[in-house]
Amino acid sequence: MGRSRRTLPEELLLLALDPATGTTAQPQSLDLGLAGAQLVELALAGRIAPDGDRIAVVLPRPTGDPTLDTALELLRRRGSPVRAVHWIGGPRLGLRQTYLAHLERCGMVHAVPGQMCGVLPTTRYQASEDASSREIRLRVDTAIRTGVPPDPRTAALAALAHAVGLGKHLYPGNEGRSSRSRLRDLIRYDPMGGLVAHAVMDVQNGVAAAPRRQPATRGATTNPARAAAGASHGMARAGAR
Predict the structure, then answer these.
(1) DSSP letter at 186?
(2) Mean pLDDT along residues 201-217
(3) What is the C-alpha separation between 40 and 44, in angstroms, rounded?
(4) Tens-place pLDDT, residues 74-130
(5) Which H or E run includes 109?
(6) CA angle 84, 90, 92 (to 5 degrees)
(7) Three-class secondary structure of residue 192 per DSSP
(8) Which of the 8 DSSP states describes residue 5?
(9) Contact by Cβ (8 Å): 161, 140
(10) How far is CA 194 from the centre of its chain?
(11) Three-state secondary-structure class, residue 30
(12) What is the dihedral of CA 149, 174, 30, 214, to 10 degrees?
């Protein structure tokens, strides 16, 4: 994978950086979004593909990006397709910091050390004056303003931005209401981005334990004990993250 283009996790993180505070908007949901963005990037690279609401590895060959390749290897070790909500809702310790450190090495952001309450050391991150950062925001703005169907990468980025709650960060106030609505609507232009974005929102809403409800078929029955056991197992996994 060439490094002339930023990956979706990097683009999502740059969108989330608040230029006024040097912090990331929606930090908790952003961590979920970064894990989801890895899935979309791996799909765009032809390494994984959706299988219903699950993710299957179709080509385990490394991409050349160490962070993506770590995710790809973890998916490969599962041995069978994994539900997107379970993957995104799993532990992702340090993922945001990993990407911030990478962007700093690339010169996309620079760290600004400081203190909280005059005692605790803190680090803020300011986006550099770089054409790549402006291009990322311009792509999303153009898709919203023109209504022209965006390319899959931009559609997925918009879907993830909506899923993690960046709409109010990117388009604040009453004047940004219509832009936030159009940002949400862009989710339909990329199936993989839509799948992952819905999974991110499901994890946030606490519904990662149960698969999306399918229409009932005639004569089908449900085993209550099995359903309860499955839900209990899923809640345990969600609570472990």
Answers:
(1) G
(2) 64
(3) 6
(4) 999 999 999 999 999 987 778 888 998 888 888 888 887 765 666 677 777 777 766
(5) strand 109-116
(6) 115
(7) helix
(8) S
(9) yes
(10) 11
(11) helix
(12) -60
- Cross-strand partners of 114: 122
Helices 191-204 and 152-163: crossing angle in degrees, nearest 10, is 10
Q: Does residue 63 sit in helix, strand or coil?
A: coil
pLDDT band per the 50, 70, 90 thresholds, residue 13: very high
Average pLDDT of the chain to the nearest whole number:
82
Alpha-carbon gap, residue 152 to 195, rounded angstroms: 13
Sign of CA dihedral 167, 168, 169, 171: positive
Residue with tokens 């994994």: 82
CA–CA separation, 215 and 222 (whole Å): 13
- R_g of the chain, CA atoms, integer Å: 19
Name the pLDDT band for 8 (thresholds 50, 70, 90): very high
For helices 95-105 and 66-78, angle between their N-to-C axes, nearest 10 degrees = 150
3-state helix, strand, coil in the chain (%, to 5): 55, 10, 35
pTM: 0.79
Q: What domains, with CATH codes, occur in the chain?
A: 8-206 (1.10.3630.10)
Q: How far apart, in Å, are the Cα atoms of 228 and each of 17, 53, 136, 214, 216?
A: 41, 20, 44, 17, 18
What's the token pair of residue 16?
């989330």
Q: What is the pLDDT of residue 241?
A: 40
Position 24 scores a pLDDT of 85
